[in-house]
Design brief:
Elements (H helix, E strand, L loop, with lengths): L6 E5 L4 H11 L6 E5 L5 E5 L7 E5 L7 H15 L4 E6 L18 H12 L3 E5 L14 E4 L2 H10 L5 E5 L5 H11 L2 E11 L2 E8 L6 E9 L3 H12 L4 E9 L5 H7 L5 E4 L11 E4 L2 H12 L11
Parallel strand pairs: 1-4, 4-5, 5-6, 6-7, 8-9, 8-11, 11-12, 12-13, 13-14
Antiparallel strand pairs: 2-3, 9-10
C-alpha cells in the first residue's frame, strides 16, 4: 500500500455520504472543517487542520441548490490560501452540464461559466463522472479526469444474466452511449425518438428496432423528471418487451419522478450514488462509485493510469 500521508480528503455539507466512503476506501479519515450558517442565508467554511503542502481532494457534487457549487468554490479558495500543494475538485455530479452550448439566442453557457469559476477559485484538477456532454472537458485548461458510471452499472446488468438482451436509448441524443453498451453486451440496439412541445414534457415517442420478447435495458446519463424514461418503458412494454429496466448515472429525480417510476412499466432503475436519493422506493437501486473514485484518487496521486475505468 502506498503512502498517502500527503493526501487529505474534505467534503461539502451535502456530499458527506459519498466522501466518507471514498476516504474509507483509501484508508483515510475525512478532513476536519467548520461550516457556519448565518441568519441571512450566507455561509462560511474553514479548514480545522493544516493543509500546507498537501494534495487536497474536495468531494462535492454540485446538484441543486447552487449553494453546493458556492461551497465548493469557497473550499477551493480556502485551500489555496492555506498553501495546499494541489487542490483537486472531485465532482461526481457536475451541475449545469446541460447548458453546454447556445441552443437559442441570448442564453448563457452555464457549463462554461462554472468551469471559469472553478478555474478562478484556483483548482488544479477536476475529477468528475458522466458529463452530459463530453465537450465540457474542453471548457477547462487544466486536467479533467472524466470517469464513466458504466464501470459499475454494466457489471450489475451482466450479473442479472438476462437472455435476449436489447439496449435502448431514450432519445436520439443518447444513441452513441446506447451503441457502446450494445457493442459491449453484443446485443440488439433500439432507438427511441421523442418530440417535445416544451421543456421536461414529452409530446410523442416512437421506437426504432425490434423488442418483442426481449429484456430491454434503457441507458442514459441522468434521469430528471423521469417523463422520457417512463414513457419509453411503457411504449417498449406495449411493443412486446419481456422486461424493461433503466440504468442512469445521475439520479436528479425532480418533480413527480419518483411517482412516475413507481407507476411505470419499469422493473427497476439503477443509479450510482453521485446524487443522494430524496426517498427510497422498491424500484430504485443505487450502486456506489466511492471505490472507483478512491482508486482514481490514488492513481492520480501516484501518477498512474486511470484508463481501467473506461470499459465502454
Amino acid at each position: 500500500m502506498s503512502d498517502l500521508s500527503e493526501v487529505k480528503i474534505f467534503t461539502g455539507e451535502n456530499s458527506k455520504y459519498i466522501a466518507e466512503n471514498i476516504a474509507k476506501s483509501l484508508g483515510l479519515e475525512l478532513g476536519k472543517k467548520t461550516f457556519l450558517n448565518f441568519s441571512d442565508g450566507e455561509f462560511a467554511t474553514a479548514y480545522d487542520e493544516t493543509v500546507r503542502g498537501d494534495h487536497v481532494f474536495i468531494v462535492q457534487s454540485t446538484f441543486p441548490p447552487s449553494d453546493n457549487l458556492m461551497e465548493l468554490l469557497m473550499m477551493i479558495d480556502a485551500a489555496k490560501r492555506a498553501s495546499a500543494y494541489k487542490v483537486v475538485a472531485v465532482i461526481p455530479y457536475f451541475g449545469f452540464a446541460r447548458q453546454d452550448r447556445k441552443d437559442r439566442p441570448r442564453v448563457a453557457i452555464g457549463a462554461k461559466l462554472v468551469a471559469n469559476m472553478l478555474h478562478a477559485a484556483g483548482v488544479d484538477r477536476i475529477m468528475t463522472m458522466d458529463l452530459h456532454a463530453d465537450q465540457i472537458q474542453g471548457f477547462f485548461d487544466i486536467p479533467v479526469d472524466h470517469l464513466y458510471g458504466s464501470s459499475v452499472l454494466a457489471p450489475y446488468i451482466r450479473s442479472l444474466n438476462l437472455d435476449n438482451l436489447a439496449i435502448a436509448s431514450p432519445d436520439i441524443g443518447g444513441s452513441k452511449r446506447a451503441n457502446s453498451w450494445a457493442k459491449f453486451f453484443n446485443s440488439d440496439l433500439v432507438i427511441c425518438h421523442k418530440t417535445r412541445e416544451r421543456p421536461n414534457e414529452v409530446a410523442e415517442m416512437k421506437a426504432i428496432g425490434n423488442v418483442k420478447n426481449k429484456n430491454v435495458v434503457i441507458v442514459d446519463d441522468m434521469i430528471d423528471t423521469a417523463g422520457t424514461i417512463c414513457k419509453a418503458a411503457d411504449m417498449l412494454k406495449n411493443m412486446g418487451a419481456k422486461t424493461v429496466r433503466a440504468v442512469a448515472t445521475h439520479a436528479v429525480l425532480s418533480g413527480q419522478a419518483y411517482q412516475r417510476i413507481e407507476e411505470s412499466a419499469l422493473e427497476e432503475v439503477i443509479f450510482t450514488d453521485s446524487i443522494p436519493l430524496k426517498q427510497q422506493t422498491h424500484k430504485i437501486k443505487t450502486i456506489s462509485v466511492a471505490d472507483m473514485f478512491a482508486e482514481t484518487i490514488r492513481n492520480v496521486y501516484e501518477h498512474k493510469s486511470i484508463s481501467d475505468h473506461f470499459i465502454l
